[in-house]
């Protein structure tokens, strides 16, 4: 960064001319290449030359296969680019102060700005104070669009009662109440601050001297700055306005010049550097691991066989994957228990190694997410592990050592089902949890009985879009109105996100399965993300109308009929999928972990016939998830993360996996921060124990029925 004495300060014009003749005078800030791809480690098992089954589900695209994602959702149009380039406006219009200082008609900001966007123009005022009760605004754009914008603004002024026909106020615009002198002065000061900030979004004046000029070399050869930051690098606008600095890009030198006061230039350079970290955070490859653990270290199988897994039934079997693909998804299961080379101590050591590797990988992944801008969530799910792409053998049977080696090969892929996996045991999970009074308690402090826990109703819609599908999630809670003595449903949360192209689900950043071969079950540790959280007011009119008209059907929700939806929505929307959930949430004893048991049902929409889509409806199934609401609270900061800044949560084990608190729990030991992680694993083991007990009970009942001469379907 070049520093100047106040008496020797140089203008941007003089500095730029010298630079064109002599080249850059400073190397500026040096930043390593955050997107440099490393070669794979050499210690992984080599891919086998034997034949592999590759008919399973395709793996999610890695970072190098993804396209660059812009850091901003709405880029400049041509009219705003002209304003940035300090070109004169095509026309001007005067707007009453009462409208621009107090207008809240449109959630985008001022209504005159909305009108300009609708006509493809840009409107701006450089006047800090009004004159004669109004202030002048310039309009940039094509002449026809400028005329249309000016006419629309004039109509708005007339309809608001501030034009020549003051009595002709329309019902479309609410009456604007005059500001009190104190509020007026406060609004004027806020307007002045905004005008001062906005000037840094434009190209710097060539004849103004600066106290310091800094340089930042663009470190990423894979992407041009305009691909990620916008044509005018408008993603840096928050940095420009917060730090009161001009930022321009010199394409010939592939660097940014930052101009302003010395302290502000330093702050801007730091935030530009951290913006590169934010870009790199989106390009990290997902972490996938398949680990084994032995709940009963004395029972080690000699062999592992692949058992065909039956997917949830649907109403349209012809639209499913073909039979070959379905058969390729198989659940690994241990068999042939007896004398084994793996000793009791060896099995216990492998379990300790797996859980330690799991913990370290989770924390390492979280450490990379401080700069991730977007929606992020972490969940733990109990379900069935399936092998999708695996090495073929005779009769699909492996020696245990052979199977363990295959898990480490890069060609192997697997997945953990969304449903618990055993349809018979799923139906009795809810009463089993309601009897587990020594493991869970109601999440609500006002509820004292596990059977009195009210469910949470949730839906997830996915809408097709060429730039990346939109995803809408909504949750309703049942509430009680004391005045009417009736229950009603209120929206607890609503969120819009944009998915990556060619995907219909959140992007996986962490995908680790901790597998138990004795039951084919696995604990899936997920970190899922979407790089764009969408403000509802910035949606298209069709999507906004869909969201506003969404309503829950109380009768269908409480009766939970087999295939009936409990939400009312527009069936003609451009939907690709829809999932509804009825969830029961409990708290694990002496902790803040939430155990959520959900009954869910999926609907997939295909090609449309005469306006109506063909729908595939899956049978209702059950899932089980464990998470902390504190995880969601911490990661919510990533959704609101400004450009060039860092999420301030810690990524240590004590923050994400705290020690137990409450009666009966061991005393918190600050010298053993990993104690909370081991306590979580102990709780997960107890939850898995309920699954085994439920399954054994059902098998015993089936045997009793067979002995009695009757079989149960």
From TrEMBL:
**Ranges of biased composition (kind: Basic residues):** 48-58
Compositionally biased residues, Basic and acidic residues: 332-343
Polar residues bias located where?
Answer: 20-29
Can you tell which superkingdom this protein's organism belongs to?
Eukaryota
Annotated DUF7905 domain ranges read 343-660
Write out the ranges of the annotated region (Disordered).
1-65, 317-353
Q: This chain belongs to which protein, by name?
A: DUF7905 domain-containing protein
């Amino acid at each position: 960064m070049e520093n100047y004495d106040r008496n020797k300060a140089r203008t941007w014009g003089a500095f730029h001319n010298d630079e064109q003749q002599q080249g850059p005078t400073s190397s500026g800030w040096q930043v390593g290449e955050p997107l440099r791809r490393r070669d794979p480690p050499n210690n992984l098992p080599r891919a086998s030359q034997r034949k592999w089954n590759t008919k399973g589900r395709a793996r999610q695209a890695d970072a190098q296969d993804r396209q660059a994602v812009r850091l901003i959702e709405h880029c400049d149009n041509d009219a705003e680019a002209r304003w940035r380039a300090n070109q004169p406006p095509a026309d001007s219009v005067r707007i009453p102060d009462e409208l621009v200082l107090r207008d809240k008609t449109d959630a985008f900001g001022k209504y005159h700005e909305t009108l300009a966007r609708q006509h493809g123009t840009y409107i701006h005022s450089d006047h800090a104070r009004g004159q004669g009760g109004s202030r002048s605004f310039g309009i940039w754009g094509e002449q026809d669009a400028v005329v249309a914008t000016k006419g629309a603004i004039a109509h708005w002024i007339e309809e608001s009662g501030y034009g020549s026909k003051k009595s002709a106020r329309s019902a479309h615009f609410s009456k604007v109440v005059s500001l009190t002198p104190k509020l007026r002065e406060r609004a004027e000061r806020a307007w002045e601050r905004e005008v001062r900030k906005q000037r840094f979004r434009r190209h710097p004046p060539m004849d103004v001297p600066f106290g310091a000029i800094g340089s930042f070399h663009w470190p990423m050869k894979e992407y041009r700055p305009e691909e990620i930051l916008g044509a005018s690098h408008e993603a840096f606008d928050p940095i420009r306005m917060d730090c009161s600095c001009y930022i321009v890009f010199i394409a010939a030198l592939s660097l940014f010049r930052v101009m302003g006061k010395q302290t502000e230039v330093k702050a801007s350079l730091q935030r530009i550097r951290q913006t590169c970290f934010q870009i790199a955070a989106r390009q990290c490859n997902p972490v996938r691991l398949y680990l084994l653990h032995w709940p009963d270290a004395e029972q080690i199988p000699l062999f592992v066989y692949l058992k065909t897994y039956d997917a949830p039934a649907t109403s349209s079997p012809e639209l499913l994957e073909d039979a070959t693909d379905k058969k390729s998804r198989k659940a690994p299961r241990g068999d042939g228990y007896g004398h084994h080379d793996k000793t009791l101590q060896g099995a216990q050591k492998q379990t300790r190694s797996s859980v330690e590797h799991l913990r370290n990988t989770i924390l390492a992944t979280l450490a990379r997410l401080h700069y991730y801008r977007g929606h992020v969530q972490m969940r733990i799910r109990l379900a069935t592990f399936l092998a999708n792409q695996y090495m073929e053998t005779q009769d699909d049977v492996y020696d245990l050592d052979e199977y363990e080696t295959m898990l480490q090969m890069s060609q192997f892929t697997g997945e953990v089902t969304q449903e618990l996996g055993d349809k018979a045991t799923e139906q009795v999970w809810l009463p089993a949890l309601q009897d587990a009074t020594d493991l869970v308690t109601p999440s609500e402090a006002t509820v004292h009985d596990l059977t009195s826990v009210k469910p949470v109703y949730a839906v997830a819609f996915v809408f097709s879009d060429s730039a990346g599908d939109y995803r809408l999630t909504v949750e309703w809670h049942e509430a009680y109105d004391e005045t009417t003595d009736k229950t009603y449903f209120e929206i607890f949360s609503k969120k819009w996100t944009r998915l990556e192209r060619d995907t219909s689900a959140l992007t996986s950043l962490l995908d680790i399965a901790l597998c138990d071969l004795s039951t084919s079950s696995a604990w899936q540790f997920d970190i899922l993300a979407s790089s764009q959280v969408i403000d509802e007011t910035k949606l298209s009119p069709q999507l906004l109308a869909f969201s506003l008209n969404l309503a829950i059907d109380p009768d269908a929700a409480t009766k939970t009929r087999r295939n009936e939806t409990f939400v009312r929505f527009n069936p003609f929307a451009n939907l690709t999928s829809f999932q509804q959930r009825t969830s029961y949430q409990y708290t694990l004893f002496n902790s803040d972990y939430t155990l959520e048991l959900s009954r869910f049902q999926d609907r997939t929409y295909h090609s449309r016939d005469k306006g109506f889509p063909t729908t595939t409806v899956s049978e209702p199934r059950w899932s089980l998830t464990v998470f902390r609401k504190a995880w969601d609270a911490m990661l919510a900061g990533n959704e609101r993360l400004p450009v060039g800044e860092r999420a301030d949560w810690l990524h240590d084990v004590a923050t994400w996996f705290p020690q137990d608190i409450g009666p009966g729990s061991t005393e918190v030991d600050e010298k053993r921060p990993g104690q909370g992680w081991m306590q979580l694993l102990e709780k997960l083991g107890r939850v898995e124990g309920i699954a085994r007990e439920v399954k054994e009970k059902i098998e015993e009942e089936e045997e009793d029925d067979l002995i009695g001469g009757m079989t149960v379907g």
